[in-house]
Amino acid sequence: MKGAVISTNAPRALADKEVEVINRQVSNRIIGVYSAVSDSGMLKKDPAFYKEVYEDLMQRGFSRVVHLGDDYLNDYIAPLRAGLGAYYLERNKINLYDLMKIVRIL
User: Fold this and answer.
1) How far apart are CA 19 and CA 34, in angstroms?
2) Which helix (H) or strand (E) holds 99?
3) Which own/partner contact pairs does 61-69 have at CB distance under 8 Å and 24+ positions apart?
4) Which of 48, 53, 59, 74 has the smallest set of CB atoms within 10 Å of its CB?
5) Which has the closest alpha carbon to 6: 47, 27, 28, 35?
6) Distances (CA, A) of 6 to 1, 24
7) How far is Cα of residue 3 from the mean position of the Cα atoms in its chain?
8) Domains (ranges, CATH) in the chain?
9) Can you tell me the distance from the alpha carbon of 38 to that of 25, in angstroms, rounded to the nearest whole number?
10) How far apart are CA 95 and CA 53, in angstroms?
11) In a 3-state reduction of DSSP, which class is residue 19?
12) In degrees rounded to 5, what are phi and psi of residue 2?
């Protein structure tokens, strides 16, 4: 299975709206949303959250999971500690859409 999911600290209602906007820009490539707050009851994304996301995606048939994020600790170190591949997005150097193309998510 190929596509992108969003993992966020935002509540689900806000995250779902973000996905609508993003999908208009990248041709419906976002196929799921995980909200740390709404889905897992966590205030911050941490390794336990990423493990939950990873396990769910593996059960849904994904063969590869990597995380892209712009917060060094919560979006890069935390997924690495959970056993996921991770890319750190330095927003002043590259945007999310270009990074997703580079790692062949889109």
Assistant:
1) 11
2) helix 96-102
3) 61/1, 62/1, 63/1, 66/103, 66/105, 67/7, 68/96, 68/99, 68/100, 68/103, 68/105
4) 59
5) 35
6) 15, 15
7) 11
8) 4-102 (3.40.50.1000)
9) 25
10) 23
11) helix
12) -130, 140
The per-residue pLDDT for range 44-99, each reduced to its tens digit, is: 888 999 999 999 999 999 888 888 888 899 999 999 999 888 888 887 777 666 76
**CB-CB contact of 69 with 50 (8 Å):** no
Interatomic CA distance for residues 88 and 99, integer angstroms: 10
User: Are 1 and 28 spatial neighbours (Cβ–Cβ below 8 Å)?
Assistant: no
pTM of the model: 0.77
Token pair for residue 78? 């935390």
